[in-house]
């Protein structure tokens, strides 16, 4: 880990934040209630913020006001109609070419992508189903479809999305294991 251009050992403690490691997960906790957990093995990061920030955020993490209708609010207040448009509107440097790693795609329900994603995010026999009532799997299913359509290693992409879902379930106090294929 690099802090201020200097490599540091973990755990790292400063007056403003702590960086620690648990297995393949790096965790940053700051004194203002911001937490970032990154699973290095699956290249997934989860962000959480304290209630103090309620209604005070905008951007890629949303508005944090429990109003789904304005989660995709752009910098000038308009509402983006897709996640891609929303993300692009928050780019800091317009002259830098960005790469949309999960573009919108149309997938046939008979496709292998659809069947694989359904197995984890739609079926009641899924190893993730115990969390369906706590964390709505629909967005993860959609992300799974878009990721698999573009992935060179579909098994790894599927496990990355499953990891993101498990991390969100854990944030909601529900312990799940990754599917055995992961």
TrEMBL record:
Domain of life from the UniProt record: Eukaryota
Q: Where are the transmembrane segments?
A: none
Tell me which InterPro entries the record gives: VWF/SSPO/ZAN-like_Cys-rich_dom, VWF_type-D
Q: In this record, what's one Pfam family?
A: VWD
Task: Outline the extent of the VWFD domain.
Answer: 1-97
| Protein's name according to its UniProt entry | Vitellogenin
Give the organism, scientific name.
Answer: Nephila pilipes (Giant wood spider)
């Amino acid at each position: 880990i690099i802090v201020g251009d200097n490599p540091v050992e973990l755990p790292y403690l400063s007056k403003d934040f702590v960086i620690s490691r648990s297995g393949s997960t790096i965790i940053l906790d700051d004194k203002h209630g911001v937490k970032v957990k990154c699973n290095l093995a699956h290249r997934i990061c989860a962000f959480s913020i304290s209630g103090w920030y309620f209604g005070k955020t905008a951007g890629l993490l949303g508005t944090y006001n429990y109003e789904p209708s304005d989660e995709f609010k752009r910098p000038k207040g308009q509402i983006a109609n897709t996640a891609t448009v929303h993300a692009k509107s928050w780019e800091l440097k317009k002259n830098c070419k960005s790469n949309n790693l999960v573009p919108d795609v149309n997938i046939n329900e008979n496709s292998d992508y659809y069947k694989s994603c359904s197995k984890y995010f739609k079926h009641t026999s899924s190893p993730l189903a115990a969390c369906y009532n706590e964390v709505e799997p629909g967005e993860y299913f959609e992300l799974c479809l878009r990721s698999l359509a573009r992935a060179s290693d579909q098994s790894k992409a599927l496990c990355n999305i499953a990891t993101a879902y498990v991390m969100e379930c854990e944030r909601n106090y529900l312990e799940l294991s990754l599917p055995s294929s992961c």
